[in-house]
């Protein structure tokens, strides 16, 4: 199947992936410098709104364009997954802000680095799909890296849960029940975000078979 090199829909999907990258970069900057939490919270609210607008544009365009660069379900899967990543980034920072988490910790920093790496690979993969390079070693490497990053996230999440349930965990509220509930929600959303990122590897693999 022929994929047009220039496509308005692909331009918009790429723009959505850039918003996801920016959201991940903002989250990492907050993790590294907690004084940016309020500023980042406001920025991510705006980015999430921009992403929603772009999703609506893509959805409308899919219904209007006769010849699509990918099948409708493939466009929808890429679009919805990117939107979910952005929504999660906004939700995580929202919770950190409204729960009045006073400082960062190494676990937040580690997750922010993994998510940024994953979103960078996703953006790269989408660019390769656009350029019809799904049979390339670079595309295969992109998929492998996404699986590896998610595996690292699984190990990190398990380690965090073990520490959180310890008798004394100063990074997570010192064992206070309410603090543990808050942190469990935050880290579960972070883990869910990496799961979505890994789903891109599965999607990319399917697109490689379907279109390459």
Structure description:
The chain has 212 residues and is mainly α. The protein has helices spanning 8-32, 37-64, 72-98, 106-130, 137-164, 177-211.
Largest sheet: none
CATH superfamily: Phosphate transport system protein phou homolog 2, domain 2
- Cα separation of the termini: 8 Å
Number of domains: 1
Instruction: Indicate the proportion of strand residues.
Output: under 5%
Radius of gyration: 18 Å
Mean pLDDT: 90
Q: Any idea of the CATH topology?
A: Methane Monooxygenase Hydroxylase, Chain G, domain 1
The CATH class assignment is Mainly Alpha
Total helical segments: 6
Unreliable spans = 1-6
CATH architecture: Up-down Bundle
What topology does this entry show?
Blueprint: H1 8-32, H2 37-64, H3 72-98, H4 106-130, H5 137-164, H6 177-211
Helix pairs in contact: 1-2, 1-3, 1-4, 2-3, 3-6, 4-5, 4-6, 5-6
Question: Can you describe this structure in just a few lines?
Answer:
The chain contains six helices and no strands. It has helices spanning 8-32, 37-64, 72-98, 106-130, 137-164, 177-211.
């Amino acid at each position: 199947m022929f994929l047009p090199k220039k496509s308005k829909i692909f331009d918009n999907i790429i723009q959505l992936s850039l918003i996801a990258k920016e959201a991940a970069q903002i989250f990492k900057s907050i993790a590294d410098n907690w004084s940016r939490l309020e500023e980042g919270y406001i920025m991510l609210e705006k980015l999430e709104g921009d992403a929603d607008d772009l999703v609506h544009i893509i959805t409308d365009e899919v219904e209007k364009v006769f010849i699509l660069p990918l099948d409708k379900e493939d466009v929808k899967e890429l679009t919805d997954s990117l939107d979910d990543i952005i929504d999660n980034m906004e939700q995580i920072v929202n919770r950190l802000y409204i729960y009045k988490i006073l400082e960062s910790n190494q676990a937040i920093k580690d997750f922010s680095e993994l998510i940024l790496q994953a979103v960078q690979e996703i953006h790269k993969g989408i660019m390769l799909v656009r350029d019809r390079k799904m049979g390339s070693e670079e595309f295969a490497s992109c998929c492998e890296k996404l699986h590896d990053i998610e595996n690292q996230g699984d190990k990190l999440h398990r380690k965090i849960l073990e520490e959180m349930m310890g008798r004394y965990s100063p990074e997570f509220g010192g064992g206070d029940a309410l603090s543990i509930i808050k942190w469990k929600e935050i880290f579960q959303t972070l883990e869910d975000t990496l799961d979505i990122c890994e789903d891109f590897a599965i999607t990319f693999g399917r697109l490689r078979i379907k279109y390459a």
